[in-house]
Amino acid sequence: MLDIKKLRDNFDDVQTSLKKRGYKIDKSLFFSLEDSRKELQINVEKLQAERKKLSSEFGKLKASSKDTSDLKNTIDQLNVELESKDSDLQELLTKQNNLMLDMPNIPDTTVPEGTNEDDNKVLSEHGKIISTNNLDHLEITKKIDTEIASKLAGSRFAVLKGDMVKLQRSLINFMIDCAIENGYEEYYLPYMANENSLIGTGQLPKFEEDLFKASEKLYLIPTAEVPLTNLFRNEFINEKDLPIKVTSHTPCFRSEAGSYGKDTRGLIRQHQFEKIELVQITHPNESMKCLENLLNNACEILDKLCLPYRIIELCTGDLGFSSSKTFDIEVWMPSQNKYREISSCSNFTDFQARRANIKYKSQDGNNFVHTINGSGLAVGRCLIALIENNYDGKDSIKIPDCLIDYFGSSTINVN
RNA sequence: GGAGAGUUGGCUGAGUGGUCGAAAGCGCCUCCCUGCUAAGGAGGUAACUGGGCAACUGGUUCGAGGGUUCGAAUCCCUCACUCUCCGCCA
Known about the structure:
Elements: H1 4-9, H2 11-20, H3 27-63, H4 69-102, E1 121-126, H5 137-140, E2 144-145, H6 146-152, E3 159-160, H7 162-181, E4 185-187, E5 192-194, H8 195-201, E6 218-220, H9 225-230, E7 236-238, E8 244-253, E9 272-282, H10 287-305, E10 309-313, E11 325-333, E12 338-347, H11 351-356, E13 359-362, E14 365-368, E15 370-378, H12 379-390, E16 396-398, H13 401-407, E17 411-413
Parallel strand pairs: 4-8, 7-13
Antiparallel strand pairs: 1-10, 2-3, 5-6, 8-9, 9-15, 10-11, 11-12, 12-15, 13-14, 16-17
The structure holds one RNA strand.
């Protein structure tokens, strides 16, 4: 959520910024709501003050057992007026709030301008592309089975067997250990979240169709970002405790509505996948530095796994709803002959903090924190990358050195 | 699933109709004392929000939403959540 004061005072600046990401604010709507709000609010508060005063006089008259009927009449009339004005005001505030909840975050001034992903900027490429293999992961190993998964649950699910499960488990443990080493505290979390949590991180109300609803009140989490960030919802944090770094491995559930026909083969786009999430709760002055730190933490994993990847900076038109600045990490997928997203690291500035009411206390008063998060990493996609990049073209997949202790062997025989 | 108790400021916790945005304690901040630390003393310290250049000055909030009342933390109703005991259970 944006700061409404910013809109009141610098509407044109905000409008210009949001335009860069393709969002249009209706200026006349905003100010017509705002003008009525101001007038009504002043009016209502005046009436409330008056009632307060008269009620206390009423009490005094009562105490000295004097006649109160005239005063009661006055107050009754006042209450009728107050009630109608107040309900107008409430209606208006709801409209205004809905308008605010619909607005995306303001892109950071350093974000390159653009209209869609074609305008994203490649910042750097890392590692050597050595694989000449063009078989995809389903062709390389039979231990990933999406057909049998469709019997169990439908399309966009997978069943893993034997070595592949163990490899996935090794990746998870390796990634979590990296995060811990980098100062993140590990959490085990609920895989379902309530509505308020999802509003806090920005999935609701606008993106309900992307979620799986598990019951009347609970949704399956689309990412551990939701529970990790909401750990701090409605909390005050001591300034000296910032930044707070937390991590968790969870499954993630996404309906992938609107991606029909896209990435239908294999593990790349599933309703359910494993992910390690990194979250930092930071001081506003430090957040960009923390974003770089988090990005490095994520890249480090690919470095250690010796997988080729590149870093992309998203342009204004491709930024996620809540994000102010985002770096994507894309890993090389030999079978597709291109890089695919494996992590998205974002600075949400105070956008989520405002929605989730996460503040820090400092000498100059209370202020909203900035929230940062990114995958560290998406496990399913990492598994694909590992299989496809490390396949020898004949019968085995090489396990990177950093995983050998976790996996217990230096190769997987695929026959 | 059955029975009961609770939800108040950063925390603990008092408060059953106006003098309560709220006792007390803890914590925190400022100052005094002290060679330093500890202890001690004085004062300050809820959040959100409106108007105003500002000084300042209004309003809202005691889990949420309704109701009663001139007036509600306090009375009534509904809901959510937490805890305890019993039952069941990985």
